[in-house]
Specification:
This protein has 734 residues and is of the alpha+beta class. Helices cover 52% and strands 11% of the residues.
Length: 734
């Protein structure tokens, strides 16, 4: 046993001699070649992170884990808190161990970390099938940062955690780019910068001054960030390296089919669909019909875009007129909220459009749905300008799955006997709605499954817009008049703060179109039943809602409160519209800031006639120069010039630093002298003499003649000083 230990010791000693011999040989070879290697720098001292820094870092990770609940599966988001809670337990135990004089155990064993890692990978694979995609990828990073915090032992590990948290802060914009979102991210970045400051400084610091210092640092960088955002040349096109976009559960869309009662439920959905800003003339409420989808197929009181694949192909035929960009009577820009619907709302009657494909049913469809908020333009006329070919109006627009009963046939015969034209037939049906006790309600009664139309027409006579549009369109087909249902939005609220229209999902509406006199013409049976819905909009109508029906007794007071609010109602509307205007301007100028918006900005500044790229570069250089001068000039003017002895001593510090001694900030002259003595003890008297002369000039009150003599002496001492190589390397202490 003893012999084996001796052999092992000889083996290691022999290896050490070989390595030292090789190192000596390399140094000798470099010396013969005339190559002088710089001395190795001293390793800076490290320190244990303060309790305040670790507590703040724990809060920062907890905030990320809480935000994680809004995008990830609850099981994954909940699992993120387990490593965090375990780390808190270890930190409390470490604090108690230090108080009792025991050795602290900063993190669990490698086996525990391996188990947590395998569980994290398993959760990602189970719930997402991998980490491809925004939600899966970011969830994986959130789990990793929680595990990294759990295994952190030294200062460098905590710095890595902070860097990952900064990356996650930027990932928040992939899911929400609102004003509140950027404010939250800004405050979070300030928190991370504060943590970095606390980690980099040994000892306990007051958190409040450090927090304000971090806020000032971020505020200093904001002007440059804003300048680069607006003036840096925009890049067109998609980034192929970005993760695939996941379908957002918050996005909404109008259905491709219409079932009686669906739009009535949408009346209670106050979510924003889009905003529209008109260039010159804003149409009145009763003219604002936003066309989205045309429903051709009828299936027993249900309507859909196309009933089978053959019709589906025909429905997608392009008109051949291509993308129209001509101006109309109404010209507008729409900022659409995120949606999974590929069909775009355009104002009837469509004249020009900037995005999508124009189909033969005069609807516009995107090739890919716009999951994010997006912007586009359009124009409209007061009368339809597309004269469709009569060949496109075939038997599809006359077919119905529902067949009229004998009672309905008698009613149809009565209308046929009274009318000479299709237009007269349509007016007779609308007059029937007006003269009979039909009512408009958000809670329509349940209809008979076999004959829903007759049950509605003769018995309940109570429904929402889809009931009337479906009934009117079916009746017109029975009367051999080509007809279809159109689904979209009607009305919208005028925002007086920003002069734009806000259209919500509660404004969803259905109406009919008839082929009369060689073109499709709009007929809205809802206007015959509830003219207030079309004249004032859905929000005005909701003022009359008493929970069961639209009360005529409340009509006058409700319309007065809506059109001319006062008191608390007026203040609430003002604050709501002001915030909505701020959100609209934010989406227009920040979220949807593009090449076209940048050109519009340059034109508003009177720079539209110059080349865009060169103009932007000149503006950037001028702007960066102004910002730099505005931030640096006050400090330059306010600072006092350095004394001559301090400038001379700085020369000495540079000489010492070039020899590999790290001079940390806050080191005194005597600290520097001790570092030099530890490196080269033979120069102790020389460096101490320099420090003594410097301190006399710096702190003692001496006469002018003696001061001049000491300055000359210090200058000559520093110029003669040459640091000799030594064996010891030391870092100066604070």
């Amino acid at each position: 046993m003893v012999k084996e230990k001796q052999n092992r010791r000889n083996y290691f000693e022999q290896g050490w001699r070989v390595r030292m011999s090789a190192s000596t040989t390399r140094k000798g070879l470099l010396k013969r070649l005339g190559i002088n290697l710089p001395p190795r720098p001293t390793v800076p001292k490290t320190h244990a992170p303060s309790n305040a820094a670790l507590s703040a870092l724990t809060v920062a990770i907890a905030l990320v884990a809480a935000w994680h609940f809004s995008i990830a599966h609850p099981a994954i988001a909940g699992f993120t808190f387990l490593p965090l809670l375990l780390k808190v337990i270890y930190l409390r135990r470490d604090r108690r161990s230090v108080e009792l004089g025991r050795q602290a155990k900063h993190a669990p064993s490698r086996w525990v970390m391996a188990i947590f890692t395998v569980l994290s990978l398993g959760l990602i694979l189970i719930f997402y099938g991998g980490w491809n995609g925004q939600v899966a990828g970011i969830s994986f990073v959130v789990l990793l940062v929680s595990l990294k915090f759990l295994e952190s032992r030294v200062l460098r590990d905590y710095f890595v955690v902070c860097v990952i948290l900064l990356f996650l802060a930027s990932c928040a914009f992939l899911f929400d780019s609102s004003i509140l979102s950027i404010l939250g991210v800004t405050f979070y970045v300030i928190l991370i910068v504060t943590i970095l400051h606390l980690l980099s400084t040994p000892g306990a610091l007051a958190t409040k001054p450090v927090l304000f210092s971090s806020a000032r640092l971020i505020a200093t960088a904001l002007p440059l960030a804003i300048l680069l955002f607006f003036l840096f040349p925009r890049i067109q096109g998609d980034f192929g390296f970005l993760p695939s976009r996941d379908e957002n559960g918050n996005s909404q869309a109008l259905e491709d089919r219409m079932i009686a009662g669906d739009l009535a439920l949408a009346a209670f959905n106050n979510a924003l669909a889009f905003r529209a800003e008109f260039d010159d003339v804003t149409p009145a409420t009763h003219e604002r019909y936003w066309r989205v989808k045309a429903l051709t197929g009828e299936r027993n009181f249900q309507w859909e875009i196309a009933p089978d694949t053959t019709w589906l192909q025909d429905e997608r035929v392009i008109t051949g007129q291509g993308k129209l960009l001509s101006k109309g009577f109404y010209n507008y820009t729409i900022i659409h909220q995120e949606s999974t619907d590929p069909y775009l709302p355009y104002l009837d009657y469509l004249r020009g459009f900037s995005d999508g494909m124009l189909l033969n049913n005069t609807v516009v469809r995107l090739r890919n749905n716009g999951a994010d908020p997006f912007i586009y333009s359009g124009s409209a006329d007061r009368q339809r300008n597309f004269n469709m070919s009569a060949d496109l109006v075939d038997q599809r627009f006359l077919q119905t799955e529902a067949l009229p009963t004998s009672r309905m046939n008698r009613q149809l015969d009565t209308w046929r006997s009274l009318a000479n034209t299709n237009a007269e037939l349509a007016n007779l049906v609308l007059q029937h709605f007006r003269k009979n006790p039909f009512s408009y309600t958000l809670l329509p009664p349940i209809l008979d499954e076999e004959f829903p139309l007759e049950d509605f027409f003769f018995r309940t006579q109570s429904g929402y817009c889809e009931h009337y549009a479906s009934t009117f369109t079916t009746i017109m087909r029975w009367l051999q008049v080509p007809a279809r249902v159109v689904v979209g939005y009607q009305g919208g609220e005028l925002n007086t703060s920003g002069s734009f229209i806000e259209v919500r999902y509660s404004d969803a509406h259905a109406w009919s179109e008839l082929w009369i006199d060689g073109r499709w013409q709009r007929y809205d049976p809802t206007a015959a039943i509830s003219p207030d819905r079309i004249e004032f909009g859905m929000q005005a109508l909701m003022e009359m809602w008493d929970g069961g029906q639209f009360s005529d007794q409340r009509r006058g007071r409700a319309l007065a409160n809506f059109l001319n609010p006062s008191g608390v109602s007026a203040a609430y509307r003002f604050m709501r519209q002001t915030w909505s205007n701020a959100s609209y301007q934010w989406n227009k100028w920040v979220v949807n800031y593009s090449v076209d918006t940048q050109k519009e900005l340059l034109e508003s500044l009177g720079l539209g006639k110059f080349k865009t790229l060169s103009t932007l570069m000149v503006l950037l250089i001028i702007g960066i120069t102004i910002i730099a001068l505005a931030q640096l000039l006050p400090s330059w003017l306010a600072r006092e010039p350095k004394a001559i002895e301090q400038r001379l001593f700085d020369i000495l510090i540079k000489k010492i630093s070039r020899k590999g001694i790290i001079i940390e900030s806050g080191s005194t002259a005597r600290d520097i002298a001790e570092s030099v003595i530890q490196r080269s003890p033979t120069q102790a008297n020389e460096i101490q003499e320099i420090v003594s002369t410097f301190e006399s000039l710096r702190y003692a009150s001496i006469a002018a003649e003696k001061r001049a003599t000491l300055l000359n002496s210090l200058k000559s001492q520093i110029s003669r000083f040459r640091l000799k190589p030594g064996k010891k390397r030391q870092t100066t202490e604070n």
